[in-house]
Write a structure and sequence with these properties.
Layout lengths: L7 E2 H8 L2 E4 L5 E2 L1 E3 L9 E4 L12 H6 L4 E5 L6 H5 L3 E5 L2 H14 L4 E6 L4 H12 L5 E3 L9 H6 L8 E5 L7 H9 L3 E4 L7 H4 L2 H14 L5 E5 L3 H4 L9 E5 L6 E8 L5 E7 L2 E7 L4 H16 L4 H10 L8 E4 L5 E5 L5 H11 L7 E6 L8 H13 L5 E5 L3 H10 L7 E4 L2 H11 L5 E5 L7 H11 L5
Parallel strand pairs: 4-5, 5-6, 6-7, 8-10, 8-11, 9-10, 11-12, 12-13, 13-14, 18-22, 19-20, 19-22, 20-21
Antiparallel strand pairs: 1-3, 2-7, 14-15, 15-16, 17-18
Helix pairs in contact: 4-7, 5-11, 5-12, 7-9, 13-14, 14-15, 16-17
């Protein structure tokens, strides 16, 4: 059979998740699944997730009042009497989070789509989007939306697979051991790619060795019949190759890689062109993103396409059609010749270094930096923020505005790197950061904004865009 919402029954769902049905008809048809009572659609079943800061079991009444055909609960929960008396479907499981993953795995197995899973410390979202841009030219391709890359988001993405999807490109993120292993188990990828390994999520992983082991879970859990793609120029990533007995493809700039780039040329602030060499064949490509790190992202996307027998013509066309994602080094032209670089989606030491290296190559009158705290860096957080400030000072930055608990360490590093304290500002709110940047920016400047997602510097970007004005193209 193939799984279709509106055609699958309660009985089938119970079997897929190893649950126990308490009430309701086993033949009831389920129109879909929801984990948010605020977005409940009549005819869907509500799965009550329970986390550190939330508990979906507190919103059962809201879900059923909104038209849920039933609920999936954890077995340690007291079942409200009104659920069973109204003959609503009630299913219990030991863990609703596990049940969500199990249902997604069952759903994935109903379809013939080729599944690609991408993980890594940096660049996985851009690589995912580049791959999807290429693959969609050949076949109907599903890609995980936004940041649907964790133990909740990835299963929900898989549950959107439909009959006409031939490819599915998924992103896998993590901040502790075991998550990549479980995500790989759920997705059962035909192709797995690791973009790189860097210092990120150290709070949950301890140190760089912990990051390596966590990313390496992909190679331990993926089928030996699947293909693994690794960044051959990244020593930490390529070092994982020995843990996988199946087929491996590497990408990078070095000639030892099966897929490599050469003859890289900058065409302007926004674009660059280069050749991709794939097993002896040359593909000339142009991408609308600056920076050497985006060359590597491109190679990852091209490697995925190569594994799926996509022609070199479609690879070139798909990459040229790609446009930067919001918040991932998105360059926006403002009035007065000002450019704002929105890199606010996330931040860690290596992604900050890569972004600043790219800014070096951009034409600018002056540089104003707004840097938010980089979270989950563990016991070395103060050092990494100090180093970030030192690095920013070395860019010839005219003014630096910081936000977050480690802001003082950033400023200390900047001053040690040669900036005067008067060239810095420690903001306590988004509004204060906005006002400080606006007071300092001049014609022809670049305003660079980056920080961890929870610092929400995208709010700063939006206000500055609206108040200075965007030049429409």
């Amino acid at each position: 059979m193939t799984a279709k919402w509106g055609e699958i029954t309660v009985k089938e769902v119970v079997s897929a998740i190893g649950g126990r049905q308490i009430s309701g008809s086993p033949d009831e048809l389920i129109g879909g699944l929801s984990t948010d009572s605020r977005r409940m659609i009549p005819g869907h079943i509500f799965l009550a997730l329970k986390g550190e800061f939330y508990n979906g079991h507190n919103f059962l009444a809201e879900a059923t009042n909104a038209g849920a055909v039933g609920v999936i609960l954890q077995s340690d929960t007291t079942i409200p009497q009104e659920l069973s008396t109204n003959n609503l479907v009630v299913i219990t499981v030991s863990s609703t989070l596990k049940a969500l993953g199990d249902l997604a795995l069952w759903w994935r197995r109903q379809w013939g789509a080729r599944v690609i899973a991408i993980t890594g410390s940096n660049g996985k979202s851009t690589t995912k989007e580049m791959a999807a841009s290429i693959l969609s030219l050949k076949a109907n391709t599903m890609k995980s939306p936004g940041n649907f890359n964790n133990l909740i988001g990835l299963p929900l993405a898989l549950l959107s697979l439909e009959e006409d999807h031939r490819m599915a490109v998924l992103e896998m993120g993590m901040n502790r051991r075991g998550e990549i292993a479980r995500l790989t188990q759920i997705a059962e990828p035909d192709i797995g790619l690791i973009t790189n390994v860097a210092r990120a999520h150290l709070e949950g992983l301890g140190d760089l060795n912990g990051v390596i082991k966590a990313k390496g879970e992909l190679l331990k859990m993926i089928s030996k019949k699947s293909t693994v793609i690794l960044n051959g120029d990244d020593e930490l990533t390529s070092g994982l190759a020995s843990t996988f007995p199946g087929p491996i493809i590497t990408f990078g700039l070095g000639k030892m890689n099966q897929i490599r780039a050469g003859e890289i040329k900058k065409l302007g602030d926004y674009t660059q062109a280069f050749n991709i060499y794939i097993k002896g064949e040359r593909v000339n490509v142009k991408i609308n993103l600056p920076g050497i790190h985006n060359v590597f992202n491109t190679l990852g996307g091209a490697a995925i396409a190569f594994c799926l027998s996509i022609s070199k013509e479609l690879i070139a066309l798909g990459l040229e059609d790609f446009r930067p994602l919001k918040g991932r080094f998105q360059i926006i032209d403002l009035n007065g010749g000002i450019q704002i670089i929105d890199d606010t989606y996330n931040a860690n030491p290596s992604s900050l270094r890569a972004a600043l290296q790219t800014i070096k190559d951009l034409k600018k009158q002056g540089l104003v930096v707004g840097l938010g705290e980089m979270l989950e860096l563990g016991k070395e957080a103060a050092k990494y923020h100090f180093d970030a400030g030192h690095l920013i000072a070395g860019m010839g930055t005219r003014y630096l505005v910081v936000l977050g608990e480690h802001g003082r360490q950033i400023i200390e590093g900047a001053c040690k790197g040669g900036m005067d304290i008067e060239q810095t500002h420690l903001a306590t709110t988004h509004t204060e950061m906005i006002n400080a940047i606006k007071a300092q920016v001049r014609e022809g400047d670049i305003v660079f904004l980056k920080g961890s997602r929870k610092i929400a510097l995208d709010k700063v970007v939006e206000v500055i865009k609206n108040e200075i004005g965007v030049i429409e193209k």
